[in-house]
Amino acid sequence: MHSADRLARLFLLPLFLFVAAFFLLPMVRLVGVAGSGPNGLAEYLAILTNPRHLATLLATLALSAAVTAATLAIGTVVALFLARNRFVGRPLLVSLLTLPLAFPGVVVGFMVILLAGRQGLLSSLSMGLGMGRWVFAYSMAGLFAGYVYFSLPRVLVTLMAAVEKLDPALEEAARSLGASRAQVMRDVTLPGIAPALMASGAIAFATAMGAFGTAFTLATRIDVLAMTIYTEFTLNANFATAAALSIALGLITWMVLALTRNFAGSGVAAAG
Amino acid sequence: MNRGAAITVASCGKTFADGTRALSPLDLDVRAGETLVLLGPSGCGKTTLLRLIAGLEAPDAGGHIRFDGADVTALPIEKRNVGMVFQSYALFPNMSVIDNVAYGLRVRGMAQAARRAQAAGVLEMMRIGALAQRRIDQLSGGQRQRVALARALAVEPRVILLDEPLTALDAALREHLRGEIDALLKRLAITAIYVTHDQAEALALGDRIVVMRNGAIAQVGTPRDVYFRPADDFVADFVGVTNRLTGTLKNGRFETAAGVVPLPQDLVPPAAPSGPGAVRLLFRPEAARLASPADTPLVFEVVQVEFQGARQKVTLKDPAGARILVEAPADGLLVPGAAVGLILDPARISLA
């Protein structure tokens, strides 16, 4: 027994080394760098005390929340439809929908420009209709479109698996008891896929908080946190601020996810 | 509880979108208040028929379903007021036991206090009142089964539909709950349609049994009809062990290699008996009595005896080598090779 335990511990060693090399050491270094600037330890609070950084943080949070909500809404509808309908071309459609998984953020940004940039599709369309030039690629709306496009496949894959795992008899049972379609959705389907909604929503939120490639392509006139960190780091050589902002970004994202999980957990317990 | 509805299924067939014929057009009358069992192997169409009656599937064009004479073919399940119990129970995992049972009342707009009181009453009737506040994942299989039944009954449906409700339970519990369900359905006098592939369940629960095969009805009858007078070989084999003797009909008697069997007047011979060996006589292992060879014109040779305490299973063979199985009281000592007479109960034999 004991030697088997020791052996198991030995097998955990590579995992420990991996965590140390790629997670613990860089984090410690980051914390150290953040506190070594001219402002000392106060730098940690820069994200809250500097009005510009605070505004950026709030904008990034709002954008990420909106992206998460939109992605989950679209993802739920599409996942329910795809999981329950079999038609010619369905496998092709599913693989097309998951195609953006392979795109880096920069490509997604490029596609948003093709769609909503000055020479983009929507621009020529709206000009042709005499409704002025629609350009939103370089605004929050452009980032929003890009992030939703980027997150949708990940959310969709998770939600489709959850819907397919849902016992169809649950919805049939609710209907046999007289529930309308909307009541079945509210009382059975959505609670049934709630864990998947929570998990994929968390991924969409975290991705939007930290996404860089798309922001790098589109955020020329607006500030999101990832861009600010990049600017402080490369252009201003302000390592301490960049490190402090990075830590804040990580902590806040982690906190929001933990809170959501907590809330969802107690919500499920209260319902049960 | 209100009285159950009578159900008429009129030329209802079901062909699925991919062209699979699940059900050939068939007619069936379910009497108000009776327990009708749909029995058959998997893929025989029994679940499809249940889902047509429930309103979860629509029959092919031309098919009609009536509840108490009113055509409900176009009504979806949520408008038919049927209670349904699923093989997986399909209890809502995000609700407590009492909220599950009260759900049908909730979607009908009943106030919380009233619906909880009514649901608690149903739980008491099922003798699981103590479980009201439990979560579904804290229940055993048998408890889940009772909650599923309580939930289906709480809305006082006109019909209760049960889709293999005991299949997921172990044998001992299955038998126990079978008795409970039987007593409950009889007491409520609600129309019940019960789908199973288990012949023992069908025989124990059904007022009538519908045996199905390949999307069609093979036989409709009381459990005794189906068991002792099966319509054909398929029914005979599906509802239990069947002995077959080959022979001919002559002067109201059945002549076979082991001897002669007198036939009762009411036994209908098959449509076109012709030539020797054309007719087969079917009987169950317990529809025969062992006797002295001197007392009966039907004599076999003992092949094997399996002692089971109160009873014994005796394998016999006739001079032509055909084997049959007889279940008899374990009072006489039989030895392989001995000759033994057999007396068949005339009320429990059939011809095919």
UniProtKB/TrEMBL annotation, chain A:
<comment type="similarity">
    <text>Belongs to the binding-protein-dependent transport system permease family.</text>
</comment>
<keyword id="KW-0812">Transmembrane</keyword>
<keyword id="KW-1003">Cell membrane</keyword>
<dbReference type="InterPro" id="IPR000515">
    <property type="entry name" value="MetI-like"/>
</dbReference>
<protein>
    <submittedName>
        <fullName>ABC transporter permease subunit</fullName>
    </submittedName>
</protein>
<dbReference type="GO" id="GO:0055085">
    <property type="term" value="P:transmembrane transport"/>
</dbReference>
<feature type="transmembrane region" description="Helical">
    <location>
        <begin position="135"/>
        <end position="152"/>
    </location>
</feature>
<dbReference type="Pfam" id="PF00528">
    <property type="entry name" value="BPD_transp_1"/>
</dbReference>
<feature type="transmembrane region" description="Helical">
    <location>
        <begin position="193"/>
        <end position="219"/>
    </location>
</feature>
<feature type="transmembrane region" description="Helical">
    <location>
        <begin position="94"/>
        <end position="115"/>
    </location>
</feature>
<feature type="transmembrane region" description="Helical">
    <location>
        <begin position="239"/>
        <end position="259"/>
    </location>
</feature>
<dbReference type="InterPro" id="IPR035906">
    <property type="entry name" value="MetI-like_sf"/>
</dbReference>
<keyword id="KW-1133">Transmembrane helix</keyword>
<feature type="transmembrane region" description="Helical">
    <location>
        <begin position="54"/>
        <end position="82"/>
    </location>
</feature>
<keyword id="KW-0813">Transport</keyword>
<keyword id="KW-0997">Cell inner membrane</keyword>
<keyword id="KW-0472">Membrane</keyword>
<feature type="domain" description="ABC transmembrane type-1">
    <location>
        <begin position="57"/>
        <end position="260"/>
    </location>
</feature>
<dbReference type="GO" id="GO:0005886">
    <property type="term" value="C:plasma membrane"/>
</dbReference>
Automatic annotation (TrEMBL), chain B:
<keyword id="KW-0547">Nucleotide-binding</keyword>
<dbReference type="InterPro" id="IPR013611">
    <property type="entry name" value="Transp-assoc_OB_typ2"/>
</dbReference>
<dbReference type="InterPro" id="IPR003593">
    <property type="entry name" value="AAA+_ATPase"/>
</dbReference>
<keyword id="KW-0813">Transport</keyword>
<dbReference type="GO" id="GO:0043190">
    <property type="term" value="C:ATP-binding cassette (ABC) transporter complex"/>
</dbReference>
<dbReference type="GO" id="GO:0140359">
    <property type="term" value="F:ABC-type transporter activity"/>
</dbReference>
<feature type="domain" description="ABC transporter">
    <location>
        <begin position="7"/>
        <end position="239"/>
    </location>
</feature>
<comment type="similarity">
    <text>Belongs to the ABC transporter superfamily.</text>
</comment>
<dbReference type="Pfam" id="PF08402">
    <property type="entry name" value="TOBE_2"/>
</dbReference>
<dbReference type="GO" id="GO:0016887">
    <property type="term" value="F:ATP hydrolysis activity"/>
</dbReference>
<dbReference type="InterPro" id="IPR027417">
    <property type="entry name" value="P-loop_NTPase"/>
</dbReference>
<dbReference type="InterPro" id="IPR050093">
    <property type="entry name" value="ABC_SmlMolc_Importer"/>
</dbReference>
<dbReference type="InterPro" id="IPR008995">
    <property type="entry name" value="Mo/tungstate-bd_C_term_dom"/>
</dbReference>
<dbReference type="InterPro" id="IPR017871">
    <property type="entry name" value="ABC_transporter-like_CS"/>
</dbReference>
<keyword id="KW-0067">ATP-binding</keyword>
<dbReference type="GO" id="GO:0005524">
    <property type="term" value="F:ATP binding"/>
</dbReference>
<protein>
    <submittedName>
        <fullName>ABC transporter ATP-binding protein</fullName>
    </submittedName>
</protein>
<dbReference type="Pfam" id="PF00005">
    <property type="entry name" value="ABC_tran"/>
</dbReference>
<dbReference type="InterPro" id="IPR003439">
    <property type="entry name" value="ABC_transporter-like_ATP-bd"/>
</dbReference>
